[in-house]
Specification:
The complex is a heterodimer of chains A (308) and B (298). Chain A is mainly α. Chain A has 12 helices and no strands. Chain B contains 12 helices and 2 strands; from the N terminus they run ββαααααααααααα. The chains are: A mainly alpha (308), B mainly alpha (298). The interface between A and B is large, with 48 and 43 residues.
């Protein structure tokens, strides 16, 4: 199978995955007992509003017809209007998307920059002081709830020391605390994974051969070992991306970051479900896309995969 | 390990070899991990405190004292008072009870559903397998946290719904692992022999196949409880989980966030409790993984 065929196959699968997600997103609203129109319109909406929603989205039609109508509109990025502000949902989401992407990218880059070198170092200098320290920090990082870390960071660095602003956007300083809070648990998990992956690669026979050949240690590490150790790391990085996108919702809420996460949570408070549907679907698209990229990268790194 | 030694012909003791059971071997390996044992001890302590909450908590967690709001920690109230004057320590203890219960039950639901579906998928193969695995793939593509909140918001945020929804989130990892084990065992001789001697499929699955999945499932379950507790506290923090006045570590933190400037103690302790609990489960899971890993067998 060539790379092109591999990519097209994966794209095909991705579309089916997204269809599956759309079924879930569509179905959530109908989980509540009672009339789903009331769930969407809110219990205290005036009857004209309720009726117009009923007509527009076809709530009197059979379920599969409703789904189809909703799906067709969703593909055209038409998720209806917010119940509270009457804005178009797609416009609301697109306005806030860049802020979320920026925060997530910074957090992820920070996590990678710290965890991968630390992981490699820990593996190479196993059982050293730094290794033990790193393991402890990683364990703690994985165990701390992200939102609590965010609160503690605000408490100490913003309220007590005053080094960084408490919330909002504006300068580079506004990025620091939220990205640390968001990236910490990612970094912790990635570091442990990198360490064990490198350790496993180090014990392989081909490394011993390379050393026996008399190659400089640096060549052994960078040219031979890292290439093979990178495979599981890339897989984990991809898996973590989904967690990352999910985790940013709560961090955005704490730091009042104007992204889609905060939008979604606020709309859940006000039961503004059309916005939530759009956000969930969009995030799922991002996750599926990210996994696709990870798979293709994996293919590059390990040509054997292509022939499966 | 010799006891009651017999004498050999030239008068020296003849060593008696006592084989350890599988369980004893695992326990010995586990014992060597001091961190893992610490985790187990912490969990047992926390579980004990949580279950004995009515007797361990120094005050009633719902006793309000509006004239002493937001009091800082003192000897009488080591964790201070919250925004209506309730003792934070008592609320944290009762919160442990609620959060740990939800964690265990949700993990239990995930385990049962996941193992069952994984076994069915692996054993029957074909369309059944395909369908179940596609569902797993779809679940992995979804922003789970947001979806959970949405579902709980729609069906109503109470403890039962939270347990069920969290439970239905994590079953996919179990399903994958069990399916893998079942697939690798399907063609092995003892399964064929069991079928040949007329055992029903269910019996084969239960008695022969599942015990082999035991090790990774146990490790996953431990880490799963930690994840469920984190998920529940996040939900409660946002207001979609345990509702006040019922205490959960998460909803105490909601107040903690509101009063961070003036009463930071409210935000500090519940988070510490969550971190220690999750850490303990992670340590336990790591220790179990090392103790149960067959690769460590010489």
């Amino acid at each position: 199978m060539t790379l092109g065929e591999f990519i097209s196959r994966r794209l095909f699968v991705s579309i089916f995955l997204l269809l599956g997600v759309s079924v879930i997103v569509f179905g959530v609203i109908r989980l509540a007992p009672g009339d789903p129109v009331l769930v969407v319109a809110g219990l205290d909406s005036p009857p004209e509003v309720v009726e117009s929603i009923r007509k527009e989205w076809g709530f009197d039609l059979p379920v599969y017809a409703q789904y189809f109508r909703w799906l067709v509109r969703a593909v055209r990025l038409d998720f209806g209007q917010s119940l509270m502000t009457r804005e178009k949902v797609s416009e609301m989401i697109i306005a806030r998307l860049p802020a979320s992407i920026k925060l997530n990218l910074v957090a992820y880059a920070l996590a990678l920059a710290i965890s991968i070198p630390m992981g490699i170092y820990s593996a190479l200098k196993q059982y050293s002081l730094l290794d033990h320290l790193g393991t402890v920090v990683a364990l703690v990082g994985v165990s701390m709830p992200g939102f609590w870390l965010g609160l503690i960071l605000i408490l100490y660095f913003a309220l007590y020391l005053g080094w960084f602003p408490v919330f909002g956007v504006g300068t580079w300083k506004h990025y620091v605390l939220p990205s640390v809070a968001l990236g910490a648990s990612q970094a912790a998990g990635l570091m442990r994974m990198t360490r064990s992956s490198v350790l496993e690669a180090m014990n392989q026979d081909y490394i011993r051969t390379a050393r026996a050949k008399g190659l400089a240690e640096r060549v052994v590490i960078f040219k031979h070992m890292l290439k093979n150790a990178s495979l599981p790391i890339v897989t984990i990085m991809g898996m973590r991306l989904a967690y990352l996108l999910s985790g940013s919702f709560i961090i955005e809420t704490i730091f009042a970051w104007p992204g889609i996460g905060r939008l979604a949570i606020n709309c859940l408070y006000s039961r503004d479900y059309f916005v939530v549907q759009g956000t969930v679907l969009l995030t799922a698209v991002m996750i599926v896309f990210a996994n696709l990229i990870v798979d293709v990268t994996y293919c590059f790194l390990d040509p054997r995969i292509r022939y499966q | 390990m010799s006891e009651g030694a017999e004498k050999t012909t030239n008068g020296t003791a003849k060593p008696e070899y006592k084989e350890s059971t599988w369980g004893q071997v695992i326990w010995q390996r586990f014992r060597k991990h001091r961190l893992a044992v610490t985790g187990l001890v912490i969990i047992t302590l926390l579980y004990g405190i949580a279950m004995l909450a009515p007797w361990v908590a120094p005050y009633d967690p719902t006793d309000i004292a509006p004239d002493r709001r937001l009091e800082k920690p003192t000897a009488a109230h080591p964790m201070g008072l919250d925004e209506v004057g309730r003792d934070v320590l008592s609320r944290v203890i009762w919160g442990a009870r609620i959060s740990m219960t939800i964690g265990f039950v949700a993990a239990g639901i995930s385990l049962v559903v996941g193992v069952f579906l994984g076994a069915v998928a692996g054993y029957y193969g074909g369309t059944v397998d395909n369908v179940i695995m596609r569902v797993v793939d779809v679940l992995m593509s979804v922003p789970t946290f947001l979806l959970i909140i949405a579902i709980v918001a729609v069906v109503g945020p109470n403890i039962t719904n939270v347990m069920i929804v969290i439970g239905l989130t994590y079953w996919s990892s179990y399903a994958r692992v069990v399916r893998g084990t079942v697939l690798s065992l399907r063609s092995i001789d003892f399964v064929e022999a069991a079928r040949a001697s007329g055992n029903s499929s269910l019996r084969i699955i239960l008695r022969h196949v599942l015990p082999n999945c035991f090790a990774p499932v146990i490790v996953m379950a431990t880490l799963n409880v930690a994840g469920s507790i984190l998920l529940e506290t996040s939900l409660s923090f946002l207001g979609f989980g345990v509702q006040p006045p019922d205490p959960s570590w998460g909803n105490i933190l909601t107040t903690g966030r509101q009063y961070m400037r003036h009463a930071p103690h409210i935000a500090l302790f519940p988070g510490l409790a969550i971190s220690i609990t999750v850490l303990a489960f992670n340590l336990l899971g790591d220790g179990l993984r090392d103790a149960l890993d067959p690769r460590l067998n010489a």
